[in-house]
Amino acid sequence: MPYLNAFLFGGFLCAIAQLLIDFTKMTPARILVLYVSAGVILTFLGLYNPLVEIFGAGATVPLTGFGNALANGVIKGIGEKGLLGVISGGLTACAAGISAAIFFGYLFALIFSSKEK
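Above: the chain's sequence. Below: its structure in token form.
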């Protein structure tokens, strides 16, 4: 059942993004920012962490989950370092994921050559 819940919630988020692309003039970049911002706002309102408990990876893997990780990092950073935690908390919480994205992006850029359309 946890796999089904994760699949349904992740699919729901993807379906909303696809509808925004199809029926609005929003660019994928704006939708990305909207999803990350929604994750941050829902976390600060206390609404996103219950979704993570119910839907697991379906709520943590999409872009809203990245916003949730940033917000949780900031909350923890403020508790530990005060005002400095606003800046350092989100970066600390997401450092491993960001570093992995940079490393693997660079690795694949070395392995594969780009082609023009």
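Helices lie at 2-23, 28-44, 48-55, 57-60, 63-81, 84-111.
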